[in-house]
Hints:
It is a single chain. Strands 1-9-8-3-4 form a five-stranded mixed beta sheet, with no helix packed on it. The mean pLDDT is 96. The protein starts with a strand and ends with a strand. The chain has strands at residues 4-6, 10-18, 25-36, 46-55, 60-68, 74-76, 81-83, 88-94, 102-110. The chain contains no helices and nine strands. It is an all-beta fold. Strand 6 (74-76) and strand 7 (81-83) form a beta hairpin.
Amino acid sequence: DKTKIGISDALLITVSVTNTGNVYGEEIVQLYIGYRGSVVDRPEKELKGFQKLNLEPGESKSAVFHLSADQLAYYDEQCSNFVIEPITYTVHVGSSSREEDLLHGEFSIVD
């Protein structure tokens, strides 16, 4: 539930998934990050992780992702270094990258 992290910190992102059907199922939970306000051209949603969950009928499990600030860096050729931008990042978690399949949240990186 962090909304702000430092450049040397990390987030733990957790989402609960329930098999609402009557048969065994598998779900691939995907984690995407968006870069709102980036000074460089970046993808609208960048895949940062995925996890396969095996679920019995009616069973719930959590997918847990560890995301460190340095995983959000880009390489700046002018200064020959990786840069972690102090911007707002959007978290997208779901069964695909389609908007209707995603849950959303936000956090910021602060200096």
